[in-house]
Amino acid sequence: MNKGALALLVHGGTENWSPVRWKSRFDEVCPDRRVLQLPEATFDPAEVHYAAVWKPHPGELAAFPNLRVIFNLGAGVDALMADTSLPDVPLVRVAVSDLTERMTEYVVLHVLMHHRQELYLRDSQRAKRWAPKPQWAAGAISVGVMGLGALGADAADALKRMGFRVAGWSRSPKQIAGIDCVHGAAQIEPFLRRTDILVCLLPLTPQTRHVLNRDLFTKLNRNSPMGAPVLINAGRGGLQNEKDILQSLDDGTLGGASLDVYATEPLPSDSRFWTHPKVVLTPHNAADTDPDEISKYVARQIERFEAGGALENVVDRKRGY
Q1: Does the first or last residue of the chain, that is N or C, have fewer Cβ atoms within 10 Å of its Cβ?
Q2: Do 73 and 167 belong together in one domain?
Q3: Out of 11, 183, 284, 319, which one is annotated catalytic?
Q4: 93 flagged as catalytic
């Protein structure tokens, strides 16, 4: 019996999202299945049972009448959820240890960067200025992690082991050993009041859009050794009100920011984020997707599904993640 084809729809535009690269990996891990790289492939839409996608164009997936599962190749599914013609089939998000570990690397790197005053020290280097400031211990800093899914939970645990005081906030109750976890609208303000460095790893939903705004920033702790709180956003660009971030950096409401995601990507050349002295900017590569690991993950899921097993990490469409 012929196995249903896997359609590959990748619209990234950067080297790590090269469709050819993804096609070669899926050909290797799905040797007995036709892998179709769209839009180049010639095929009958009815033969497509599975789709592996990144930012597909609205309506593309509706063209497959026998689609059984959609696999999103990155962690965020908001672009997919915005497609009103999305077929009513299981939508599976990526959850592999490689992606989790990369995000934890990013979060730890940027928390340490602000904690160890790297922006000041690099400015001193450029000015040839030998003027170290007193350095506080990790235990003097409270890091708050918004979003306690697989990525947030792992990052929070790593920061705790480094000696930071770590708390986490999520929409629904979570339990992580050694982490003070709070949840819901009623507990977000007390969580913010004690946070010196805010790490945001929330999914983008209608409820979380622009949650990173001036009102939230004014609630962060201003009595830490750092002087002013710091924002680290490696979640989604739609979480942040960028005008509010810039205003808060300019007037000292925020002492610094590390941003990996933006409302418009690639980030326009005229954005002030590029040159703002308090901003550490990265090009949405905090947890770069690895074609090797994720293609294997998708192949395993398809094999399990065709054998009658359950899919893992299926998105709850009502919640949006």
Answers
A1: N
A2: no
A3: 284
A4: no
Q: Kindly state whether residue 122 falls inside one of the protein's structural domains.
A: yes
pLDDT, tens digit (0-9, with 9 covering 90-100), for 104-137: 999 999 999 999 999 999 999 999 999 999 999 9
Cα–Cα distance measured from residue 307 to residue 59, given in angstroms and rounded to the nearest whole number:
29
Options 33, 102, 171, 236, the catalytic residue: 236
CA–CA distance, 94 with 82 (Å, rounded to integer): 18
Domain CATH number, residue 274: 3.40.50.720
Cβ contacts of 320 within 8 Å, gap of 6 or more? 77, 78, 81, 203, 204, 205, 206
* pTM for the whole structure: 0.91
Cβ–Cβ under 8 Å, residues 195 and 229: yes
Longest dimension (CA), the chain: 72
Rounded CA-CA distance 222/193 in Å is 9
What is the torsional sign of CA 54, 292, 302, 105? Answer: negative
> Which position has the higher pLDDT, 77 or 191?
191
Q: Pull the structure tokens for residue 250.
A: 């300019």
CA 160/CA 174 separation, integer angstroms: 16
CA distance 219 to 111: 19
Residue of higher predicted confidence among 249 and 96: 249
Please name which of 36, 32, 9 lies closest in space to residue 299, comparing C-alpha atoms: 32
Active site residue 193: no
Task: Write the pLDDT tens digit of every residue in 146-173.
Answer: 999 999 999 999 999 999 999 999 999 9
The answer as to whether 313 is a domain residue is no
**Which CA distances in Å does 22 have to 16, 69, 91, 292?**
9, 18, 19, 8
168 phi, psi to nearest 5 deg? -130, 145
